[in-house]
Specification:
With 190 residues, this protein is mostly helical. Helix 2 packs antiparallel against helix 3. The longest helix has 34 residues. The chain is elongated and about 50 Å long. The chain starts with a helix and ends with a helix.
Length: 190
């Protein structure tokens, strides 16, 4: 089994699917893989931006078409829509872009925005900007992490180096996500 060839063949598909959902961990690993020469960094960023844009647009449309039914069944959604509408009315594109960087809001945020008053064309434009910024930043962080690991390891062979880079980035991402989730759950509820 040729692991580098598998990463090169299926890596971009995994990046696309990961970016449709939350995607940070997949994109960090893809950035590290790009540093190891297994993927092209520009292709990783473009694929992630496309997946993120499509995913958030789909969630917006779900909110637009099913928002009333969801609000009827989930009272917290009904309460959130006016707050999100006020946030969107005040901050417009900045709010849409910022939601992309909030862990756990990648699916819920666009659905709630879709249930509100923001026009589809405006959401799509802000969403495109956010997708490009997000994919570039996260992929570059993964690339930089891969570079740092390679600098620390020096003479390790290429294949082992790539696997180690992926493992280190995955561990760092898991620890960061766990700390973020723990901190978020310890905050008092609104």
């Amino acid at each position: 089994m040729d692991i580098p060839a598998l990463i090169q063949q299926h890596g971009l598909a995994a990046v696309f699917v990961g970016a449709l959902l939350e995607g940070e961990t997949v994109l960090l690993l893809a950035g590290a893989s790009a540093h190891a020469g297994l993927l092209d960094l520009r292709a990783v960023m473009a694929t992630a931006a496309g997946g993120a844009f499509l995913g958030d647009t789909l969630f917006f449309l779900i909110g637009r078409h099913l928002g009333a039914r969801v609000a009827d069944r989930l009272p917290w959604v009904a309460k959130a829509v006016p707050r999100i509408d006020r946030l969107i009315a005040r901050w417009r594109w900045i709010a849409v872009v910022a939601l992309r960087f909030m862990y756990g809001m990648r699916m819920a945020g666009p659905m709630v925005i879709g249930a509100g008053k923001m026009p589809l064309w405006e959401f799509m434009a802000a969403n495109a900007l956010g997708a490009v910024l997000w994919s570039g930043l996260i992929a570059m962080l993964g690339y930089a992490a891969g570079h740092a690991v390679v600098q620390m390891l020096g003479g390790v062979a290429g294949f082992e180096k790539a696997l180690l880079v992926l493992a280190v980035v995955a561990i760092v991402a898991a620890v960061a996500i766990r700390a973020f989730v723990r901190r978020r759950t310890q905050r008092p509820a609104d």
